[in-house]
Amino acid sequence: MPPAPALINLPDEARLIRLLARVLQSGQLSNNGPAVRELEDRLATRLGVEHLVLTSSGTLALQVAYKALGLTGEVVTTPFTWITTASSLRWVGLRPRFADVDPDSFNLDPAKAEAAITPATSAILAVHAYGNPADIAAIEGIASRRGLRTVYDGAHAFGSLYRGRSALAWGDATALSLHATKLFHTVEGGAVILRDAEACARARLAVNNGLDTAGVPRTTGINGRLSELHAAVGLVLIDDIDAALRERRLAAEALRNRLAGRGLRLQQFNPDAVPNHSYFPALFPDQAARDRAAAALAGEGLPARAYFDTPLNRVPGIGDGSAAPVSEGLAQRMLCLPLRFGASDAERERMARIVETAVARRSPAPRSALADP
Ligand SMILES: *Cc1c(COP(=O)(O)O)cnc(C)c1O
Predict the structure, then answer these.
(1) Is 8 part of any domain?
(2) Same domain, yes or no, for 171 and 124?
(3) How many domains does the chain have?
(4) Rounded to the nearest whole angstrom, what is the distance from the C-alpha of residue 320 to the centroid of ligand 1?
(5) 182 C-alpha to center of ligand 1: Å?
(6) What is the Å distance from ligand 1's center to 268 Cα?
(7) Of the residues 203, 220, 236, which one is the last residue of a structural domain?
(8) Which residue from 9, 78, 84, 305 has its CB within 8 A of the most atoms of ligand 1, so it is best to mutate?
(9) Please, which pLDDT band fits residue 371 given cuts at 50, 70 and 90?
(10) Which CATH number do you get for residue 285?
């Protein structure tokens, strides 16, 4: 029986077991072992970058980037993202300053980001939302004119290209998440990619409690290391990642075609980029239609996710009290449709029909006080 379609990109079982056995026999389970070093090399080569450090999560990769770049004060960022983009700033004592997103790309609007800069701003932190690269050229231009650093949250963007290079190869730093829900992953894990060697050396010390490779304490840090067992998962998946990316692209294109004319608005891709289609965000005409679709899909075993449903400017302890009307409108109406590995065309058609029904069935009109007897 073929395996049930999975939302998770599962590693080949036989190869993973062989690799895990090799790790166990080596006697080294963590502390920058051979599997971690091999995965760092293979990722750096694949992404076309020189300076890459694996970490224990994508959230930690963001925080290591902030520390390695010496950010201070405020960081201008998007509210339309996963909570850790901004909570990671607060957790290390930085203040997010939210600028709204573009309604079509769902990415940070560069003009609004520039308007949010204050004398306390040290960096711009943009997200490649759903794998669609941000307007990197505009953001880099603003940062260099205003003397700011740039950090990209590339959690969604493994396999996305910008101007012919990996979308993860831009800016002073990019953080990648290798969480199990991402296209390429190590179950839990992350990586930070840095433009320059000095920042990379600081990141390497930072994830190893401030100890250098000889074990000599040099500075303060944290335990942010990836284990050998986690790296083994990455080593198996990286061999198959081109096939997974290709399958994802074909599935997303097929679903786009099926959904045409069914009342949804889809993400507009950056014209300088090739997205990885790691998510399939669909914008419904209103929140009620979105919620109906989510419930109907769940009932059919198709787990769609209202992602992102909470604009971060509104989250206690994170938000700055500012308004972000575009993000707030998107958050109420967005649903990520499930793109399962191994899903059939019939499943996509079923999904498209459910969505169409949810859109077509109008929400009940509010009862008018005048019409009531
Ligand atoms: C997954 C994700 C992260 C965090 O990654 P973890 O590995 O779960 O810590 C950060 N930003 C975005 C946009 C994400 O989707």
Answers:
(1) no
(2) yes
(3) 2
(4) 21
(5) 9
(6) 22
(7) 236
(8) 84
(9) very low
(10) 3.90.1150.10
332 found inside a domain: yes
In three-state secondary structure terms, 269 is: coil
Last residue of a domain, one of 204, 236, 268: 236
Q: Based on the domain organization, do 30 and 115 belong to the same domain?
A: yes
Dump pLDDT digits (tens) for 232-271: 999 999 999 999 999 999 999 999 999 998 889 999 999 9
Neighbours of 44 (CB within 10 A): 17
Q: Do 275 and 132 lie in a common domain?
A: no
Identity of the amino acid at 238: I
Residue that is written with structure tokens 């902030």 in the block: 66
Which residues form the domain of 257?
Answer: 241-360
Complete DSSP assignment for 311-369: -GGGSTTT--S---HHHHHHHHHEEE----BT--HHHHHHHHHHHHHHHHSPPPPPPPT
Task: Identify which of 97, 84, 64, 342 has the alpha carbon closest to the alpha carbon of residue 202.
Answer: 64
Tell me which amino acid residue 319 is.
G
SS (H, E, C) 33-93: CHHHHHHHHHHHHHHCCCEEEEECCHHHHHHHHHHHHCCCCEEEECCCCCCHHHHHHHHCC
Per DSSP, 266 falls in state: E
| Residue 369 scores a pLDDT above 50 | no
The answer as to whether 368 is a domain residue is no
- For a mutational test of ligand 1's pocket, the pick from 179, 184, 336, i.e. the residue with the most ligand atoms closer than 8 A to its C-beta, is 179
Nearest atom (ligand 1) to Cα of 129: 13
Q: Are residues 30 and 177 in the same domain?
A: yes
Residue nearest to atom 5 of ligand 1 (CA): 58
User: In this structure, are 259 and 183 located in the same domain?
Assistant: no
Q: Are residues 35 and 54 in contact, defined by beta-carbon separation less than 8 angstroms?
A: no
- Please state the rounded mean pLDDT for residues 338-358: 93
Are 183 and 112 contained in the same domain? yes
Q: Angle at CA 224, nearest 5°, toward 192 and 216? A: 105
User: Are residues 195 and 223 both part of a single domain?
Assistant: yes
Q: pTM of the prediction?
A: 0.95
